[in-house]
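Throughout our pipeline, every protein is held as a single compact record rather than as scattered files. The remainder of this section carries one protein's record, kept here as part of the documentation.

===
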Amino acid sequence: MTKLSVNINKIATLRNARGGNVPDLLKVATDIQKFGGQGITIHPRPDERHIRYQDARDLKSIVYTEYNIEGNPEKSFIDLVLEIKPEQVTLVPDAVDAITSNAGWDTIKHASFLKEIVQEFQRNGIRTSIFVDPVLDMIEGAKAIGTERIELYTEAFAHQYSLGNKNGIEPYLEAAILANQIGLGINAGHDLSLDNIQFFKQNIPGLLEVSIGHALISESIYLGLENVINMYLQKLK
């Protein structure tokens, strides 16, 4: 079964919009795990517009499943991850002013930069994952860097699927086959939803983990958080 890691950035966005502590981020993280979620993902950004660095620290004692911290490996981010030592860190090349992540790494151009960071995290017992587009050269580049996993950036698939074009899965299938052949673990995330997750899961061999936030929280407004988590778990079997 593919693991479901729930990205709780949107819970922090809602809290920050009003001030105070409603909704309570730590309680939501606890409930997600109680409802069956197999991991908690956060993506702190330098402006702390949703997840704050202190949230990342506070969650350390709350997350008893898998703690995944993703972000652009600037110095403040690296220091935070090394302080907390989550089970997994996912390196994402998002610009400071990006609304959301919008591209994978060029693992060839940035090979030396990424390799140094990956090695530092690994020395501290933190599994690394590199956010990549489904481009074979980039996956081979990730392997050369020494990361344990890649996270496939799935926005293009989700867009094509919403248009009825199921052939949009093909680059991801090719990417997964290569990753399996060269010994890279496969995660995936971005715009995955209840509508497309089962099709994606069924067509990607060796899919270890998906990280879902925006869609899952949005769906929960109508259907309820516990119900939605269990719906994802059923589709990921």
Summary: The chain has eleven helices and eight strands. The mean pLDDT is 96. Residues 33 and 210 are 15 Å apart (CA to CA).
